[in-house]
Amino acid sequence: MKTRIIAIFAAMTFGAQAHAQDAAFGTWQTEVDDGTFAYVTVAPCGETICGTLARTFNSEGEYQSENIGRQIVTNMVPQGGGEYEGQVWRPSNNKTYIGKMEVSGDALRLRGCVAGGLICASQNWVRVQ
């Protein structure tokens, strides 16, 4: 019994450390979409990873979008090798898509897909923090 408790504790500790050091965590700048771009903060969200709109910008500078604080990347589950699968919400059309994310250093490629992942649109984000 004691060995089982130690093994469970070790697994929980290792899992928490791996989760805390995830390469996707941080603040990312989106590409311009419909004349605006945003800073998205990617962080743990329960057992998954989520991205929340933190700041929004248009051609005149920073502005207060009604979407600040909303999650646009939800339930991303690490697949290994810097790849994730979950959902992506696009504010400009209020639709949620099958989401795929790939992180490599300070670059993040986010895809929103329909038709079971056959048709996708993507954006390339850069880490700002």
Q: In a nutshell, what does this entry contain?
A:
The protein is mainly beta and 129 residues long. The protein contains 1 helix and 9 strands.
Structural account:
- The protein has 129 residues and is mainly beta.
- It has one helix and nine strands.
- It has one helix at 2-20, and strands at 26-29, 37-45, 48-58, 61-63, 71-80, 83-90, 95-104, 107-114, 119-127.
- It has an eight-stranded antiparallel barrel.
- Strand 1 and strand 2 form a beta hairpin.
- The longest helix has 19 residues, at 2-20.
- It starts with a helix and ends with a strand.
Number of strands: 9
Distance between the termini: 44 Å
Q: Can you give the helix content as a percent range?
A: 10-25%
**Class inferred from helices and paired strands:** mainly beta
Tell me the β content: over 45%
Shape: globular
What is the overall number of helices? 1
Order of helices and strands: HEEEEEEEEE
Keywords, please?
globular, single chain, 129 residues
Reconstruct the topology from this structure:
Elements: H1 2-20, E1 26-29, E2 37-45, E3 48-58, E4 61-63, E5 71-80, E6 83-90, E7 95-104, E8 107-114, E9 119-127
Antiparallel strand pairs: 1-2, 1-9, 2-3, 3-4, 3-5, 5-6, 6-7, 7-8, 8-9
